[in-house]
Every structure is written in structure tokens, then in C-alpha cells.
């Protein structure tokens, strides 16, 4: 048994122990128990994943053989390890956060049940990621679906929660069915239900069957990943769940959907056609746009984050799609770049979204509301929470020096490389997707300016918001950890990208990161790692001096082009960060010097001379995002009803009641027609059941004849 | 097809050349009564009595006009057998009655001065005249005078209106929000003395009761050129035409 196996075994043992411990200890100790069990388990998962990622080697083990199903096996390879690492970090943060957060539910809801389902969820997440056969995978998937449903439904007495939970359960079961059908199709020609055997079987699939399998798995897993058009549950379920569960839902479970897509569509039955790539690319693009549009206009703090998850997963999916198209068109380097960007984006999204959800949970707990129109002014009352939330907001808005910038920039640059493809329609598709991605990035900034400003700046807009207090240290510590990760991942991409490339080797073409990060520090005129012209330029800048004190290849991400255009694009978040810090320090020193002699007069804020600045006079979240709502009216299609009362005369309105109802575009375009169609088919088929015995006999006879005929035909 | 460009060229520069040249366009100012010596005591008494705002004070055969109260009703010009003397013009700015001297802004502001206008309850007339300063004829930008919407960047506080009770607080706040090299210019009779509103429970008797005023522009309303003169005085680019003296008849 190697250390990975021990760590994994300990992980499951800790989860089970935690469940039993939760049943024994008194209720007020349960949050602490949960935090300990969850964080120790997460630590073990991180350790196991880290071992595999750093030292290489994969762990494969056959658990036991079930008659008629086959052997259940687990495989802990680098892909699994990468996802387990992300899951571990998020679970660690959200478990520690739970210690303070869950106390509010004591006496209202059963903490024991929460503890049990939380740990079951953690265990099933890891189980999914290491499972390597169809049966175990589906079983783990169901365990994850049901436990996450139960956790979403935890606050079941709040209005809307149960509804959101049921929708989530129904849609995830529908996705599960699609995946099951796809796996059955794959498994029909395979020797066993192992993924490796499915892979051999998948090679012989005809194009039609392959497409069917691809579409079923892509949209089946897409339900969990939150891809348009199967994401109707996500914006309802994520806000309904407690914040620590929301963090896991957004930071880990969405990744599980992507993991399924990666495992099945990129490894077991790899898609290689341009068509499939375009489907992935366009789905991702539409998800990104729809997600951010609704995030911008949403006023529920957690709703904003939920919609923005759809956007981020859309960007990740877009990267996957671009990768497939590039690979099909014969550009392995660009394909690898797109893959790196996508995985990087996924890693980043997990971290900053978990951070933001935990921050939102803190706000909800201490300010008593999540409605952005009723929050405000929390920066003074909750300085730590607002600080880390600001870092998360900057990261998710893709602003340097934080991590979101690197991955979104890389994704955008990769899409712009679509010009290298010779086919005009493909180029057009890339151009459109690139433009939409740029729009998405701009809207994301708008969205998070709104979110941060409305929640933390300005004046408090409700009584509760004025009485907010800072969260406890144990709730802030995990957020600070995630914020630091945001910064590290944003400042050191030249260390992260080769690691991603090395760890996800078969998926990302070999040498993608190497060619993106030129070895400035180590290149000399002798070893020929760089063309001489390049070398001269960079040595003039003193590049080789970095070799002494900085390990690694260099700190610049750079794509080299032809002779005419030697540098296609380049960036260096590391140097930018150094320059940024240097400039901030310099400017502050200069300002301090210049103003040292001046006497400062403090006057009250100028607010137009009004007697008192009231919260009602300030911008609300609804008002701030209204321009977006007006510009994209064609997407939102609001149903506005206005009811005015006039008492004195025709034009003297005494009361205006304005109501605005919006149906999510996915509900309107996809879910509702599908629901109507299903209901109509059911109504039509119900006509068969009129209770006449003779008719039923005819049905049986007809079916028998059909079966006989069918088998004779084949 | 529009010919505005050619029209413009043909018309040439229409802006007034004031203060480089004396502006003599007729109608820029209604004019105002000046201190008059009558032939009899009773004529002077009649002139003082006909004045509805007590701007005219009789002293023997002489009458003295307090321009800080005069509302240009012209009763003393047309309704009297022996009318008051009348002057036209616009360089009327003066130092407030309760002060002996006021200083203009320091020289760096001479060519660039930002003005914050506060309507402290005026009837709209003075504000209308202030507004004219931005039109092509008076075009105060050519002199480096700019209106600003925030007191933080303003150098001059231009107040019109008698300061109604509701505007007292905002006016004070505006003044407090200005950087300390500020000057206050009270424009119009109401802003100087309360004018036809006078002292009441809802109204202060002019800006001077609320803020320290540096310069005044009498007139009801003062013509745009008078206001421009006042602003140039604040900027230190024009001197007061007539030093304030007791002969102006402040009673």
C-alpha cells in the first residue's frame, strides 16, 4: 500500500467517523465536529492529490467483484488528482467556515443531518473522481446528487427552498439518465464496465453512435456543470443552499460535471470532429453570455454568484471547445493552449467562487439579508470580509494581479488565434465567440462593481445592515486562505501552467506550456533554446540574471509567431505585479512627501447641500444594472404591469404600483417548451387508458406482434 | 444644407469686447436713480415717499439712493413732477455696506476662476441674468471664468436671492465645502438687502446675514455686464468704479 492509498482510505474513514461523531456529540458541538472532520478529510485529499501530482505515478486498485456487474475499480490518476486537489481546497475552506457559520441553524434545523449529508457529499465527490468503472461511477454520482439535494433543501422551511431542491433533483436525475443511456451504448460493445474497456470499445463506434454518446454525455453532465440550456436549476438551487454548501456546489460540483465531460468525451470516447468542438464552443459561449447577463441584473447576492458560475463554466467549456476545434484543424499547440486556459479558468473559478460564496454567507449571517438593495456600507462594519470579498470580486472580474485575469486573457488570446485556421466559417465562429467573451468580461466587471459597491460601500439601506458586525476569525481565515491563493495563482502563472501541462499530459498536448513560456533565464547562445534575435533582446533586459534567484523558466507568457511577427502576444503578471507594487509604493511616498507640509482640513462630504444624505437617495443595485437591463431587453423580455391610482383628477396619480416579472431565457426558450411537449405527449398517451378490457388485449397483441416482427427483421 | 458656418463667418464676432472696450450697446441696462439735489425740500420728500422699498432717503433738498435696496421700479423717474436723476451703465459692483474694504482673489485666480452659483430663493430674474453670461454675447469663458457644479473646485460663491429659510443650510454647507481662498459675491438687490421680500419668518435679509460677503452687485436684476463686472472685481481684474462713500446714502 502506498501513501496515496493510505491517504484515501483515511479520507473515507474520517468522513465516516465524522458522521458518527456528529450523531454522538451535543448539538452545539456539531459545527466544530463538522469543521474538524471536513478539514482533516480535505487535508488528506489534498495530500493524496499532491503526492500524485508532484511525484507522479497513478494509483489503481480493484476493490471487489460484484457478480453480473464486474469489478469495481478505482483509479487515482493525474486528472483525478487535479480535480481532487481543487475539491480538497474548496472543501477545506468551506469546512473551516462551517464552524462559525452553522451555529445559526442550531435549534432550527437538524445539525446532525447536515453533518451527515455534508460528509457524505464530500466522500461521494472524491469517490466520483477516483471511480473507474461505470457502475461505481453512477452509484457515486447518485450519492452526490442526492446528498447535494438534501443539503440544498436544508433550510426547508424557507419559501422557495424546497421548490429549488426538487427542480435540482429532477434535472440532475434527467442528466443522470442521459449519461446512463450513453454509458449503456458505450458498454454494449465493451468487454467489461471498466472505463479502459469502454475506451477500446469506443474506437469502433460509428459516427452516428459517437455523436449520440457525445451529445448525451455532454448535456447529461452539462446539467451538473450548469451549461445552457440545462442549467435552470442552478440559479435557484445555489442561493437556496447554506453558504458553505453553495461554495462546494459552485467550486466543486460544477467541476464534477466538467470532469464527467472530460473523462467521457475527451478520454473514454474522445471527440475529434470539428462539429463536436463547435457544439462545445458555442454552448460555452452562450452559457457565458446568458450567465453574466442574469448575474448583472440579479439583486440577490448569492444569486449573482450563482449566475456568474454559469458564466465561468461557460468560459471553461468554451476553452474545451476551442481546443477540440484546434486539434481537429491540426494545431496541437493552440489546442494545448486552449486546454491550459480552460483548466486554469476552472481552477481559478473554484477558488474565487468559493471565496465569494463564503463572503456572501458571512454577509448574510451578520447583516441579516442577501438583498443588494438592502445592504450597503458593510466595508466599515466588516472590514475583513469586505477586503477578501473585494479580492474575490477583482479576481472574478479578471483584473490583474489576480488569477481570473490570467486565464481569461489566455482564453481570449487563444480564441483570437482562430485566424490561423484556414476555414472561413470556423474563423467566423471563433471571431464571434471571442467578441462574446470580450463582452462577457466587460459585463463581469460591471456585475462585480455593482455587487461589491452595493453590498459594502455607500450607506446601509436597512436597519439590519447598520447593525452588522464582523465575522469571527474562524470564518475569515478560510476566506483569507482562498484570497491568498487568488493572488498566488494570478502572480505566478508561469509556474502553474507548466504544472497543468505536465499533470494533464494526454489532454494537453505535450510542450504547450513550454512553448508559451520561453526559457529566458536559462537560454544561452550555445544551447539554442531561443532564436538568437530573441535572446539578444532579452539578455539586454537582463533576463539571464533571474536564473540565480528564481527557479523555473521565466516569468513571461509569450506566444512566438513567424519572422514577420515575432511576438504574437505576451504578458507577465509577475513583472506587472512587481511594477504595480513598486508604483503604488512610489506614488504613496511621493504624495506623502509633497503633502507633508500641508495642513489638512476635514469637511463633511459634499452631497449637493441636502440636509442629510439618506440611503434612499443612493444608487441601488437595481438602478445600477438598469442600463444592462434596457440594452438587453430582447433577452430578458420582462413582463411589466403598471397599475396607477388617480383620485383627484385624471393626471393626479396618488399611487403607482409597478410590477416586473422576468422568466429566465432558458426557462422560456428551453424548459417550458420541453415541459409543455412532455405534458401533451402524456395527455395524448393517457387517451389509451380508457379502462376497456378489449382494448388492452389489443395493445398486448399489437406489442407481441411488434416484438416478433422486430426480432424477425434483425 | 446648413449654412451656419457661412452665417457665422459673415456675422463676425458678436461677443462683447468688455472689459477691453467699453460696452455701449443700448438696452443692456435699465439704469438706476442716482443721488439728486432737488429745488425744494418737499420734492425730495415726495421722491423718498414714492419709493416702495425705502431706497431713497431725503435729507433737506437732497436725496440719497441706497442701491442695495433699489428695485428699479422707475416710479421716481416717471411718476414724479420733478424726477430723480438717472444714470445708465453697469459697473456697479461695490463693497458691502458694513465693510470698509474687501480684497480680490489672489493673482493666480485672475485668468481662471471657477464660480459656484447658488440660487438662495430668488425669483428667477437674477438667475436668468447670470445664465446670460454663458451665451455667445457675454461669453464669460473668454475671460477664464467658468461655472462649476461642485464647491470643492469653486473659488467664488455667487449667490442670488434673499436666502430663504430652506436655503440657509444648503448655502452654509456650500460655503463650508469650498476651499478657503473663497470669495462670496452677492448678486441682486434681494441678495444684498432682502429686496422686496425683506425680513420675514421665512427669509433672511440678504446673504450678508448668513455669510461674510466680499462684494455686491446691486440691481434688480443687475444686467449681465454688471455681474461680469462684479466677477472681474473678484478676480482682481477690475477696480471698483466709485469707492464706497457715505454719499451713497446708506441710511
How large is the radius of gyration of chain A?
A: 28 Å
Spatial gap, N to C terminus of chain A: 50 Å
Uncertain regions spanning at least 5 consecutive residues of chain A: none
- How many β strands of chain B by DSSP? 10
What number of structural domains do the residues of chain B give? 2
Spatial order of the strands forming the largest sheet of chain B: 7-6-8-9-10
Q: What structural class should be given to the helix and strand makeup of chain B?
A: alpha/beta
Report low-confidence residues of chain B grouped into runs of 5 or more.
243-251
Strand residues, percent of chain A:
5-15%
Question: Could you state the oligomeric state of the chains shown?
Answer: heterodimer
Structure description:
The complex is a heterodimer of chains A (714) and B (251). Chain A has 29 helices and six strands. With 714 residues, chain A is mainly alpha-helical. Among the domains of chain A are: 272-510, no CATH class; 512-575, no CATH class; 616-661, no CATH class; 666-713. Chain A has a two-stranded antiparallel sheet. A two-stranded antiparallel sheet of chain A has the order 3-4. The longest helix of chain A has 36 residues, at 332-367. Chain B has two domains: 32-87, no CATH class; 107-242, Rossmann fold (3-Layer(aba) Sandwich). Chain B is 24% helix and 15% strand. Chain B is built from seven helices and ten strands. Classes of the chains: A mainly alpha (714), B alpha/beta (251). Chains A and B meet through loops of A and helix 5 of B.
